[in-house]
Amino acid sequence: MKFNFNQYEHTQKYLYFFDVYIKNNNDKKEELFEKLNITGSTYRRARNSESKAGKMVIKSLCDYYKIIIPDIKYIKELEKLVTKIYNKMYYKSFDSYNEDINTINTLLKENTIFRPVLKLIKMFMEFNSYDVPKEIRDDELKIFYELVKYEKFFTDELKHILEILKLYFDEEYMNNIWECNYQNPMAYQLLASKCFMRDKYIEAIFYANKAKDILLQENNFKRFIVVNRMLLTSMLCAKNYHEVYRLINMHKLSISVLDLDEKEIVYANNIYYASMLGLEMYDKIIEELKDAQKFNLSQFTCLLVSLYKKSKKLYYEYVKDIEKDLNANYLNYINHLTKYLENKNKEIFNTLKSTNVMKGIQIILKRF
């Protein structure tokens, strides 16, 4: 996508900024305009058409609030920067992420009229940097609702980004969500993430599939991998273990071909072993993981549960053998897992849920 900031070369768009900014400062327009010698009719004319009076109104407001309106060169450079960032995020390219976020942070230190634009782009970048769905923080929600106020100040392309973020942050956008038709796969991806976080796995599968279809047409393979991971994880949580096990090896091959970050392989392996755990393929899990030099808590859980299901004797022998090599966190986890496997205690299960063991494995544990 190419962004066009030509509208910011004219004063009319800036009035939408000040409509919000004045209100946020708890100033009354009538009293402020009287103080600045701005008449209501002048303000209305400035809103309806580009004029010398409009430029004078904007200058008066900028001077009063000490807000900078950058020159055309700044606007053109910002246009290029936003275009670059959007396309890199869309295609999951993070080679210049730190440099770009630092540039945005530097620009935010200046009290320019484009601070809402910069905050919107920063939020879009941060959202795209998440590896897995996460709970929304209060500070993120506060920034989002502040940005919504400036919607009329944004260009059409910026409104497009805001609409995508609305799908994630605004609860009202979750009503009648089946009745939608988006051209941007990120919209469906966000809906899938939101549904997954709400344990609505069938809906998550539906939206992830819609996102996949568009991404394949666009050859956007890096984002495709992320969406496919969401799809497989949702299928896992929906207990469709046979299908996940059938598809996961192709997913892992795709990651290898694309030479993606190791974390994608880790996520894929978590799904792989969880699907086998769901299918009660205990022997295969033990064979592949028992002598592994490195695994995470999700894979460790798959191994421990498999050993326990095969033989309590094997389980306790293995635990005793590795205890000396484990840190306090892992030892504490084994203690809780053992108690749960022995007693199926709901309170202990809630303790296990608070760990970073993937949700699909937690669902499998619950059935034991």
Quote the average pLDDT.
91
List segments where confidence is low: pLDDT < 50 over at least 5 consecutive residues.
Answer: none
Radius of gyration: 26 Å
- How far apart, in Å, are the first and last alpha carbons? 49 Å
**Count of helical segments?**
20
- Which bin fits the share of residues in helices? over 70%
- Net shape: elongated
Percent of sequence in beta strands:
under 5%
Structural commentary:
By secondary structure, this protein is mainly α. Helices cover 71% and strands 0% of the residues. It has helices spanning 12-24, 29-35, 40-48, 52-65, 72-90, 97-108, 115-128, 138-149, 156-169, 185-197, 201-217, 221-237, 241-258, 262-278, 282-289, 297-310, 312-322, 328-343, 346-353, 359-367. The radius of gyration is 26 Å and the shape is elongated. The mean pLDDT is 91.
